[in-house]
Amino acid sequence: MESQYLPEIKKGLDKRVAFDSKHVDFMNSDLGTEVMRSLAVIHELDNKEALKIAMFGAIQGKDNNAGHDHSAAGHEHKSLINSRDDIKKVFAEFGVDAKQYDDVADSAATDKKLSLWRQQQVMYAVQSVPAFIVNDKYAINLNEMRTLDDIIGLINYLALKQ
Question: What is the mean predicted confidence (pLDDT) over 103-115?
Answer without folding.
Answer: 96
